[in-house]
Design brief:
By secondary structure, this protein is mainly alpha-helical. It has 16 helices and three strands. The chain has a three-stranded mixed β-sheet, with helices on both faces.
């Protein structure tokens, strides 16, 4: 269940409780599961309970994959129910830490923006852009919200376009230009009695909503299962019936990449790759009451791993390491046209 599902369609408190129970069953995935649970608690209106989950993660003996993200979410949540001073202190700490992950920057900047701290929001978005995008040839997809948010705040402040605003415009895929989407005067159109102005505003809102729906089209990626070489060799040796699915390691890698490209070409968004291990797969088969030799279990296993937050987005940036583990960049490895054959 997506955390953005309307409250009338889901019991957010019950969904949060279910995710907490699941986190107990899969402690290695607790971070992703508890963050989703906290989102449901925020939507249910129980913000103190959400803070308790954020604190539970931050005080865990296990190192977090995204500690700055957890702190940013906690700060945003705290400010929403009156703990402004603590929220500001956390936000300042994140800015000083200067994480290389765009998500915490976007969350704290939007928290400042939502409380009319536009100058501070602009400074925060700009710090993030300077840190993450200086001397970068092609902005990674994850950094686009930094540029879009900065553009929006600058429009609210009445600042003229600069180079990063121009870059944000070029990255925008919505049918409505960013200057229109972020126009401060749009709010006046909503109160207009002119049918033409209202129709134009509805059109702009639909375009903006379409962009958000595309980004939130699924709670987790459509994931393809990848086996490292050693794991695949062990899997086929233990369960020879799966040799038809995996005739060789090279064929497995080629099929993984081609399957993802076919899904992308068909219009499927939010794609990812999950990495399997034989012990994990055997445990999953046992939980399903079936044999690991059953090939129909493989896509179910992939979906379960994705639902537990184990998927990495596909495609990687061309300069990022390839998903296959070769050590080469994606552009040099499976990101080349040679791997489409």
């Amino acid at each position: 269940m997506r955390p953005d599902t309307p409250a009338e369609n889901v019991d957010h408190a019950a969904e949060a409780a279910r995710l907490e129970r699941t986190a107990g069953l899969y402690p290695e995935d607790a971070e992703a599961l508890l963050l989703r649970a906290a989102a449901h608690l925020e939507l249910s209106g129980d913000r103190p309970a959400a803070t308790t989950l954020y604190d539970r993660l931050l005080s865990s003996a296990t190192d977090l994959d995204h500690p700055h993200l957890v702190r940013a979410l906690k700060a945003s949540n705290l400010w929403e129910y009156g703990h402004e001073a603590e929220a500001r202190a956390i936000i300042e700490g994140i800015r000083v830490a200067a994480p290389r992950d765009p998500a915490p920057w976007v969350i704290i900047a939007e928290a400042l923006e939502s409380h009319d701290e536009l100058e501070a929001a602009h400074e925060t978005f700009t710090e993030a852009a300077r840190l993450l995008l200086t001397d970068v040839e092609e902005p990674p997809y994850a950094t686009h919200p930094v540029l879009f948010g900065r553009h929006r705040v600058r429009r609210m402040l009445g600042a003229p376009h600069d180079d990063w605003d121009t870059l944000a415009d070029s990255l925008n895929t919505a049918p409505v230009p960013l200057d229109e989407l972020h126009d401060p005067n749009r709010v006046w159109s909503l109160g207009s009695s002119n049918p033409a102005e209202l129709a134009a505003e509805i059109s702009r809102l639909r375009a903006e909503l379409g962009t958000y729906r595309e980004a939130l089209s699924r709670p987790f990626p459509v994931a393809i299962l990848h086996w490292p070489a050693e794991e695949l060799a062990e899997l086929v040796a233990d369960y020879p019936a799966l040799a038809e699915e995996y005739p060789s390691y090279e064929a497995h890698l080629a099929t993984t990449e081609s399957s993802l490209r076919e899904l992308s070409a068909s219009g499927t968004a939010n794609l990812g790759i999950v990495t399997g291990t034989v012990p994990s797969y055997e445990a999953f088969a046992a939980s399903e009451g079936t044999t690991p030799a059953d090939p129909t279990l493989l896509p179910q296993y992939a979906t379960t791993l994705a639902a537990r937050g184990r998927a990495i987005p596909w495609p990687p940036e061309r300069r990022a390491q390839c998903w296959c583990g070769s050590g080469r960049t994606y552009g040099e490895c499976h990101g080349t046209d040679a791997h489409t054959a």
